[in-house]
Structure formats: C-alpha cells, structure tokens
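Final report, Chapter 2: Outcomes

The project's central promise was a pipeline that accepts a single protein chain and returns its three-dimensional structure in a standardized token representation, suitable for archiving and comparison. That pipeline is now operational. To close this chapter, we reproduce one record exactly as it appears in the project archive, with the input sequence first and the structure output second.
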Amino acid sequence: MNISVFSRAAVAFAAAVGLEMSAGAATYPTAGGDISTAAGWGGSLPAATEEVEFASGGTYTASQDAAFKTMKVKASTGNPAVFDLTRPSGEGPMPVVTLSPGAKEVGFSQPQNDSCTILRGGTWNLGGGNMYVGENVASAKNRNLALDGGAVVTNVANFYVASREGENTLTITNAAQFATTVYVTSGRSDQPSHLLLGPGGRLQADTFNTDVSATSNSKHPSDFLIDGAGAVLKAKTANLASCLPVNSFVAANGALLDFGTAYYGGSNTVKKASNSRIVVRDGARFSANSFYVAQFFGLDDIGLTVTNATLTSTSDTVVGNGDSTHGNFIDSLDSTSEFSKLRVGYGAGAYDNFVRLIGGTATVTTLNVGP
C-alpha cells in the first residue's frame, strides 16, 4: 500500500476525533465505510499481510472479499462498530473476510474497555489464529461481541470470551461460531462473563470450557443462556464447572446441548466447582454420549435438572463419579429421559448422590448403584 497517502489520511482523522492509534497498524480513516476497497481506505487498500484497526464505531460494509493479517476494533458500547456484510436476497453470496495472524496468534481482539463489535453476516475466516472478545490483558472488562445476520466465524484455534478479564459478553443469534477450543473464563477474572445463544445461534467446538486451568485464579462464575429454536451448543468434549461453579446455565425453548463427552465438576486439584446447577427446560434437549457428574474427589451439590425437556445419554452416565462425592444429582421432571448405562454413587466413599425420574418417560437399559 502507499504508506504516505494512508498515513496522512489516518493521522488527520485521528487528530480530528481524538483517537489513539496502534503503532504499525493501518487504521481505517473514517467512522464507517467499505473495508474491501481502496477508496474506503482513503486510496490504498491494506495488503493481506498488514494489521488493521478500526478506531471508531459506525457501520462498515464490504462490497467484495477482503484479507488482512489481524483486526483490532475500538468502539464503545454506546457507538458500536457494526460490520454489515449481509446481502439482499438474490444479490449473491455474502463476502469473506480472511485473517492470517499465524497459528494460534491473535487474529481478532477488542483492546478497549466498554467496547462493542457486531459481526453481521459474511464469513470471517481467522486463518487458524485466536479470537478474543476482549484481549489477553489484566484489568480488562466489559467487552462485547455479537454475531447475527447469518455471520459465520470459522477456522479459529482458541476462542476466549474472557481471558484475564471480566464482564465480557458473547451473543450469537442466527449466526455460527466454530473453534477448536472455546474458553468462557480463562485465568484471573474479577467479574462474571456471559455466553448468550439466541434463536439460530450456534457455537461449536472440539473442546468447550466454562472455565479453565486447575490453577485458575478466577473469582467469579459465568452465566450461560442457550435459548430458542435452533440455538445449539455443540462440543466433542465439554468441561463444565471445572474450577468454578456455573453461576447460571440454562437451556430452554427448543435449544440443544449436544456433547460427545461431558465432565460436570471436573478438576482433580481445584475444589471450587461445587454448588453448580444446569437447567434444561421447556422443550430443550441435553444429549451426550458419556456424562460424568462430580468427576473428582470431594465435590458436592452439583446438579442437572431437566423439566419438560429431553435428556439422552447413549453410552455412560455417572452421578458421583469421584471418591467421597456427595449430594450430586440428576432430576428428570415430566421429561423424556434415556440412559444406556446409569451409575449412581460410583466413587469410593460416595454418598447421597441420586437420580430422580418423576413423571414423563424414562428408559434405563443398565443401572448400577454404588461402586
């Protein structure tokens, strides 16, 4: 690109509105416009090897595909940055924005507190890099990312809703986010973060973590709401309440939790995950091949309640799997429940773990009580 042309335009705009620019990044020169053309960038389109930054809220569009190395967005919650890549019916496919940060390097982030970005439509290819609702720094908070309008975010290595920060929110409605690994809370978090999947919202990963690390310093559990027809949380492996209890975890109104293997209360060194609840209600579905409640020693009061909904485990379900676990439970109330193999109080010294099947229809192929 023509650095001198871009620099003059970007510096003039930044000075006019009082923006702070990142060194080495090509900063979009106006508060909104077409990010895929040279005209939109003030005469020179950044190359696919260049980092780009959007330093203001506004509506950004793309008339064609675009490619950059990385992307940072600085927009306030009161004036979000809306990247609208939707197309009217019959006008062809939505464009693709491709980032190439390098394997597991940061591809997308919001390096500003009280920020908000909306990805509306289009395909966002992270090129095997990492994606942050916020960024991996301490004292960061209240950073918000929303996907809607048929947006698809794909080819993400690690996706962090909160990493060393708190009060971040990811909202997905009529859109999809795909990643190898998802962390809702990672590292020190002084405030809860939030995952909201609305109608048509899909979050899919090889591994999904409500929190992470046996040495996690996080202080506050997070909130999860998967609500509405077509709302799907899907993972090959789900680690639920590993180090922290979930503050609120609700699937409702036709939503689907679809896991290969789910560990609920799963850290063998941190005993902070007790007193957790997952609620599946009102036509929602919980499906897992294998489901382990209270996986490790001494965990207590970890429960799943299914009401007017569906619970299916096709391989193995264990309640009170760890030694000396107690008071852990599954309640199926007026629901359809199917267990291939159900084991209750399996760990040595486990006590007062239970499964209650009340009303509805329940099928248990193999039942074992006690170790």
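Archive annotation: The chain is about 5% helix and 50% strand.
This record, like all others produced under the grant, will remain available to the consortium after the project formally closes.
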